[in-house]
Amino acid sequence: MSTEKHTARAASIAGTATAARVTSLASLASAPAVAPDQEAAARPTVVLVHGAFADASGWMETAARLRHQGFGVEAVANPLRGLDYDTAYLKGMLQGIEGAKILVGHSYGGAVITNAAADVPGVKALVYVAAFAPDEGETLGGLLEQHPDPGVPPLPQRAVQFTRPDGSTGTEVMLDPAEFADAFAADVPAKTAALMAASQRPIAVEAFGQPARQAAWKTIPSWALVATKDHAIAPSLERFMAKRADARITEVNSSHAVMVSHPNVVSDVINRAYHATR
């Protein structure tokens, strides 16, 4: 496979889902947090990091549940400009959050929390939601190439070139909106999946060629949610990375958009991480 085709395919395979839904935004805004008490005050902040082809709104239903349970929640706007860039951005965000933290990454967001968390004080747990968990020195493109799965069909992809401010040319990848639902959000209501496709954010191809500099799961307790109907990251690869990280694994019959289709399961895994590390 050529470098250009491999990079574009790697970027497309690591995509994620987003839900730009007015109802979801309203539910998060109106969801009351649990009345403060000693336990709630001591709870960590849950930091939610989305992956490619998404934005922070994909976490809205999960975030609403966590707030109702008394957690502080930060849904980070992941820049999707490359692992080095996105890691630096997340570290900066985390430095502004006082106290204990649980980091949750979906898809490509898992690589970002893996690369960022080791240098940030107060991170109690990592939660991988249908996510990458690379080891030090690994690239996401390399992981995909080394762990192929014939049961996972190729994703529809569009490579788009753009001009950077310095005049150089960059390349980013998005998914064909007409095929987005089948590829990424097969168990999400059709209207929601259509909005996710329309509002998807592309990812720079650099994200899949830059090696992870650290593997925070080696020192921080980890949990993993494997989506068994995932057509973006093969479930077999998700299991491999989760087992290697010695993560507590939960499996759910879900598409890649698990935080949209199964927010209760996602929030439950986060709660398990909290109770095991408090």
UniProtKB/TrEMBL annotation:
Pfam family, one: Abhydrolase_6
InterPro entries per record: AB_hydrolase_1, AB_hydrolase_fold, Sec-Metab_Biosynth_Hydrolase
The entry's keywords: Hydrolase
Cytoplasm found in the keyword field: no
The name this protein goes by in its record: Alpha/beta hydrolase
Species per Swiss-Prot/TrEMBL record: Streptomyces spectabilis
Gene Ontology MF term list: hydrolase activity
Domain AB hydrolase-1: 46-268
